[in-house]
């Protein structure tokens, strides 16, 4: 029987395919275990739900997000992602407001969070193992150093983006291999080490690198217990496991992060490839996280790890004036490398581990620039913001719109500036909440897609996927949408006082409210200005009838 | 004021062509311009088996079709993506596979046949509207397409000449591109492309009222960023490695003559606008496979030049 299912003629752009592995790398870095994962898990020391079941169950639920986004990409592969889908399905105004708040404005808040991770996994441990104790302590605790790291990080990200996608893709792939090699060595140390040797290593290194007092292991556990550290590695009822999810999604809600870029990819409408790229990344990262913390438990012990996290954050959040016995963020990779006494090996492995950051950092603004471009092409934003510098091809104005407000928000966050009586540093999880609202908009668009854009949907490769006779994308959308509604309920109303960004937090409410007001104002002004220029923004989104 | 609607690279999508013709009324445009690459890239066999079922593969997904309605629906889906469906038995398919020349002839026949239907539809839809419609085949369109377009009473072939847009504005067009790895129908080395472009610009033309409709975008303008491919045509880095592939000849022509407006296509992912000196360059991109007609509405004003423009996804 003939195997031919397609005859192609010579035509521009007829390419073979793109590899699932390449898409996987981007998604894998977007739900980054070493940066996002370790950072937020370290803050989850006061939950009753076990870390491992929280990781696994949330990962399973987030598979529905992968289906939703792979489906949206397959039907409407456009650069601009959420903005384009929402504006075309839900309407221009709503699409603009939800997309720019989630993919642009809130990334300003991610700026100090990224730089906080950078200082803790790069500057602090590396200066420490190089014997620069004062510098390490300065990077670990000073707001000035954090601000400096923020500026350095913004320079790095700007350079990466200015170098272009081609260069960034290369940086990312290189970082993928180096970072994973580093993680493999860390895991090897954890696998071969034991708790006694870790205690000895911690005692020696904490004293040498950070000037810790003797007995740091026991003192850390005592400080953690005093803080109220309770999070178990396993166990907990389904109810308390779900209560841990509004925290864990800071880490694993992003396998779709490349969605705004997919419109630039030929063959992006291949549903299965997109789905594989995202689900493999989500699945492997979840497995990696579980294995990593099992190894941590074996050698460092989860009890020590969780107490060290509690001791650090309890002090940093200002709930105690007792400084933690270990004067640095308890970076698990650094703690694992205390199992060796070789500073050279420590330096090499920790440097390799820092590539988890460098391969990932570009994601903070890369997607944002695409959303800004898409809005400018629709004439909602001025043409200038989509312009690129002729020689370097850098999106200068789009970068300015990210970097300058990012610096201002970083200042507010790093110096914990009071906003109507509440410190601004308390708004951390707003970084995730606002994007979740954007995702909810796209999820609703996905649920409605088969019914409001019938031709588009029926012509797509996902039209054949059904569950109980209903479109798969709609079913997945209902599941993911329900999860998002649950998260938003917990964040906003916070009935158990676990997340601190709800309606009781004036800084959080004002910050998030201001962003939505800003987005609405921009859209209304753009509508008025464009109308004066003879441009009807509504027509930009409308579909021409074919008949 | 002249209101112009520009779209490009519909690549055989029936839906996009119908939308293009309707765009005049929808956007109240006086002039329609299609920038090239009208014809599709693939033939999709729908194979009939002795038991009466059919099989087709679309986007690497296999479909088993049980009845005539399902086959008809599949033909519509294939056609809406810009591919040419055809019914065939396994034996006929084997014969085609064994004879590439026959496939080429069959392909051309299907291409011209559909284009002929499109011209008839255009004649019907545009008749009596006063809307001028210019098309200029692109590098992917065989030379034979020109003759089919010339047969239309309402669609004008714009290749290689200056045409009037109204109110003193004129447009020169070419669908020829610089060399591509695919060696398509209308490609030239950069020096020859430069000479071709120079040859079609009328002496003494007022550039502040001129439009260049060149299928290939200017090199390094951002309108020409395409996914990098390797020697085997595999896309590198999941398509995130983008490189400029536009024409230096086109860029030089724009920079030298500084027309009011330059319209481009060719690179479907290159949607955007760029300014080269005084010239506004637009590539509306293409999403023909989804049946979405990406385009640009430009208002040309005798006093203001470009009064307004917007990119659309219709």
Number of helices of chain B: 7
- The end-to-end distance of chain B, rounded to whole angstroms, is 23 Å
- Helical residue percent of chain B? 25-40%
Q: Per DSSP, what share of the residues of chain B sits in E-state strands of 2 or more residues?
A: 25-35%
- Uncertain runs of chain B are none
H-E string of chain B: EHEEEEHEHHEHEEEHEEEHEEEEE
Oligomer: heterodimer
**Helix fraction bin of chain A:** 55-70%
C-alpha-based Rg of chain B, rounded:
20 Å
Specify which chain pair forms the largest interface: A-B, 81 and 85 residues
Mean pLDDT of chain A: 91
Strand order of the largest sheet of chain A: 2-3
* Spatial arrangement of strands, main beta sheet of chain B: 8-7-2-1-17-18
Element-by-element helix/strand order of chain A: EHHHHHHHHHHHHHHHHHHEEHHEEHHH
Gap between N and C termini of chain A:
39 Å
Largest sheet of chain B, if any?
6 strands, mixed
Helix/strand class of chain A: mainly alpha
Shape of chain B from CA axes? globular
| Rg of chain A, Cα atoms, Å | 24 Å
Q: How many strand elements of chain B?
A: 18
List keywords for this structure.
heterodimer, A: 547 residues, mainly alpha, two-stranded antiparallel sheet, 23 helices, B: alpha/beta, 29% helix
Question: What would you note in describing this structure?
Answer:
The complex is a heterodimer of chains A (547) and B (314). By secondary structure, chain A is mainly alpha-helical. Helix content of chain A is 68%, strand content 2%. Chain A is built from 23 helices and five strands. Chain A has helices spanning 20-30, 33-42, 51-75, 82-89, 92-105, 107-129, 133-141, 143-163, 165-192, 195-210, 216-227, 238-252, 271-299, 302-316, 332-337, 343-358, 363-377, 396-414, 430-452, 454-458, 472-493, 506-532, 537-541; strands at 7-8, 418-419, 422-423, 466-467, 470-471. Chain A has a two-stranded antiparallel sheet with strand order 2-3. A two-stranded antiparallel ribbon of chain A has the order 4-5. In chain A, helix 5 runs antiparallel to helix 17 (363-377). With 314 residues, chain B is an alpha/beta fold. Chain B has helices at 14-27, 68-80, 90-97, 100-126, 144-150, 190-200, 248-257, and strands at residues 2-7, 31-34, 42-48, 54-58, 61-65, 84-88, 132-135, 155-157, 162-166, 169-174, 210-214, 225-227, 242-244, 261-263, 272-276, 279-283, 294-301, 305-313. In chain B, strand 4 and strand 5 form a beta hairpin. In chain B, helix 1 packs parallel to helix 4 and helix 4 (100-126) packs parallel to helix 5 (144-150). The radius of gyration of chain B is 20 Å and the shape is globular. The mean pLDDT of chain B is 92. Strand 1 (7-8) of chain A pairs antiparallel with strand 3 of chain B, so a sheet runs across the interface.
């Amino acid at each position: 029987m003939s195997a031919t299912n397609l005859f192609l003629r010579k035509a521009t752009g007829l390419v073979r395919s793109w590899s699932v592995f390449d898409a996987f790398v981007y998604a894998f870095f977007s739900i980054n275990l070493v940066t996002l994962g370790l950072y937020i898990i370290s803050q989850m020391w006061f939950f009753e739900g076990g870390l491992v079941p929280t990781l696994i169950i949330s990962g399973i639920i987030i598979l529905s997000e992968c289906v939703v986004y792979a489906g949206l990409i397959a039907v409407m592969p456009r650069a601009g992602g959420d903005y384009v889908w929402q504006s075309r399905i839900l309407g221009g105004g709503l699409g603009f407001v939800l997309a720019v708040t989630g993919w642009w404005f809130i990334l300003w808040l991610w700026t100090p969070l990224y730089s906080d991770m950078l200082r803790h996994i790069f500057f602090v441990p590396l200066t420490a193992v190089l014997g620069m104790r004062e510098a390490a302590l300065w990077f670990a605790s000073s707001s000035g150093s954090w601000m400096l790291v923020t500026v350095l990080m913004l320079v790095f990200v700007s350079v990466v983006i200015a170098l272009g996608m081609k260069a960034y893709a290369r940086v990312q792939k290189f970082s993928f291999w180096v970072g994973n090699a580093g993680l493999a060595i860390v895991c090897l140390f954890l696998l071969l080490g034991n708790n006694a040797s870790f205690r000895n290593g911690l005692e020696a290194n904490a004293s040498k690198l950070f000037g810790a007092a003797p007995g740091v292991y026991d003192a850390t556990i005592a400080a953690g217990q005093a803080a109220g550290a309770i999070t178990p590695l396993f166990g907990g009822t389904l109810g308390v496991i779900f209560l841990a999810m509004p925290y864990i999604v800071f880490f694993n809600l992003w396998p779709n992060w490349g969605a705004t870029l997919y419109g630039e990819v030929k063959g992006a409408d291949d549903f299965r490839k997109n789905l594989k790229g995202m689900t493999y990344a989500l699945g492997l990262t979840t497995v990696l996280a579980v294995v990593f913390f099992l190894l941590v438990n074996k050698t460092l012990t989860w009890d020590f790890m969780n107490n060290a996290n509690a001791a650090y954050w309890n002090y940093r959040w200002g709930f105690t004036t007792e400084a933690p016995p270990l004067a640095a963020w308890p970076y698990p990779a650094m703690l694992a490398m205390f199992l060796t006494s070789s500073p050279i090996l420590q330096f090499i492995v920790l440097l390799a581990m820092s590539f988890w950051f460098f391969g990932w950092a570009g994601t903070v603004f890369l997607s944002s620039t695409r959303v800004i471009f898409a809005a400018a092409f629709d004439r909602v934003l001025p043409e200038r913001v989509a312009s690129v510098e002729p020689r370097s091809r850098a999106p200068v104005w789009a970068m300015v719109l990210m970097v300058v407000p990012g610096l201002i928000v970083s200042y507010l966050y790093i110096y914990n500036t009071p906003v109507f009586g509440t410190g601004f540093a308390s708004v951390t999880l707003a970084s995730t909440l606002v994007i979740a609202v954007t995702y909810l908009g796209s999820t609703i668009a996905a649920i409605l897609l088969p019914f409001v854009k019938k031709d588009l949907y029926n012509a797509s490769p996902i039209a054949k996927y059904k569950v109980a006779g209903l479109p798969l994308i709609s079913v997945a959308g209902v599941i993911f949408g329900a999860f998002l509604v649950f998260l938003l309920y917990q964040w906003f109303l916070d009935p158990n006082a676990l997340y601190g960004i709800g309606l009781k937090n004036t800084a959080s409410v004002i910050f998030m409210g201001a962003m939505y007001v800003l987005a609405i104002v921009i859209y209304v002004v753009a509508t008025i200005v464009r109308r004066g220029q003879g441009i009807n923004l509504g027509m930009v989104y409308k579909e021409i009838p074919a008949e | 004021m002249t209101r112009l609607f520009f779209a490009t690279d519909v690549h055989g999508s029936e839906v996009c062509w119908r939308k293009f013709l309707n765009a005049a009324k929808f956007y109240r445009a006086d002039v329609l311009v299609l920038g090239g690459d009208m014809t599709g890239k693939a033939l999709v066999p729908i194979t009939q088996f002795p038991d009466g079922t059919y099989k087709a593969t679309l986007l690497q997904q296999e479909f088993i079709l049980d009845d005539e309605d399902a086959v008809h629906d599949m033909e519509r889906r294939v056609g809406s993506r810009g591919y040419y469906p055809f019914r065939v038995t396994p034996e006929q398919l084997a014969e085609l596979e064994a004879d590439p020349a026959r496939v080429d002839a069959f392909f051309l026949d299907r291409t011209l046949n559909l284009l002929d239907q499109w011209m008839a539809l255009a004649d019907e839809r545009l008749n009596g509207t006063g809307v001028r419609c210019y098309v200029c085949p692109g590098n992917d369109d065989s030379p034979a397409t020109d003759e089919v377009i010339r047969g239309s009473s309402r669609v004008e072939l714009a290749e290689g000449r200056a045409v009037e847009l109204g109110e003193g504005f004129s447009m020169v067009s070419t669908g020829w591109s610089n060399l591509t790895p695919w060696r398509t129908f209308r490609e030239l080395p950069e020096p020859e492309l430069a000479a071709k472009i120079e040859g079609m610009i009328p002496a003494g033309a007022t550039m502040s009222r001129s439009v260049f409709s060149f299928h290939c975008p200017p090199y390094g303008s951002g309108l020409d960023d395409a996914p990098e491919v390797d020697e085997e045509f595999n896309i590198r880095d999941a398509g995130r490695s983008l490189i400029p592939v536009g024409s230096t000849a086109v860029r030089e022509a724009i920079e030298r003559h500084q027309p009011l407006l330059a319209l481009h296509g060719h690179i479907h992912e290159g949607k955007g606008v760029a300014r080269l000196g005084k010239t506004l360059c637009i590539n509306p991109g293409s999403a023909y496979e989804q049946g979405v007609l990406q385009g640009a509405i430009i208002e040309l004003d005798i006093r203001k030049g470009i009064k307004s423009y917007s990119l659309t996804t219709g």
